Amino acid sequence: MTPTIPLDLRWAGHPRSIASALLRYGDAVALVDPGPSSTIPHLREQLAVHGLRISELDALFLTHIHLDHAGASGSLVRENPRLRVYVHSRGAPHMADPCKLLDSARRLYGDTMQRLYGEFLAVPQSNLCILEGGETLTFGSRQLQVVYTPGHASHHVTYFDGLEGIAFVGDTAGIAIEGHPFILPATPPPDINLELWSSSLDAIAALDPKRLFLTHFSFSDHPARHIASYRERLLRWSELVAKILSEGVEESQASEAFINAIAAEARASLCQEEVDHYLFNGALQLSWLGLARYHRKRAAAPG
Ligand SMILES: [Zn+2]
What we know:
The chain is an alpha/beta fold. 42% of the residues lie in helices and 19% in strands.
């Protein structure tokens, strides 16, 4: 039996948007990032394909707490109260009390939040297993290394299954639909930090993984090439945002310039259907906000 199985959660009716990773390590069963609660019906179906029920899951390994990765956690714990939920210490308080997280998400998503992500229930403190990075977790017949990988989010971690050589990188290595070489960064507010991000990519590369598992979407089989090309894209995005900001144009014009430039790049490498799919997954408006915030904060910092 393959120990790592991608589950397509068909988010918002779109295949290949959000993947949860099903881990079957001997008798122990877990998900890396269960997705939002809006996709629980698909999660249930996908688990059933593998003869599993939510009540049979032992753990959720969260790479970070954003709605598209962790939103279902509280609902799954309600259904299966013995679930252990692994999360970085900086994210844990928001899993136990998601009010602030949901307020800031509401500012970004407005009326679409409920429809896209569904409810985000609190996870009882007693279900949370708090990580700092650097741990080696024994789970069933395997071990998972935890690596702190901030940059996309200040509380982001990567899990590494050394035996299989798979690094579960969440959103640290961008969006790349399995089988496509094109990589789209995801840089939403509020935590984007490119210096930390670069160190996180170093830390992932140092694991020498055979495969990366991306939440958006699934396996990337050439980690070194992927990481190198991702670094370059992230840097180019950052330069583009800095340039647009330096032109001092009005905010809506600035974000439009960014979105148009990225969409043009995507069109140069992909067919229209794939461009639409990447841009749907990519939420470029949010990526603009996240990078603009990063640059403005840097410009305002003393020294
Ligand atoms: Zn994501």
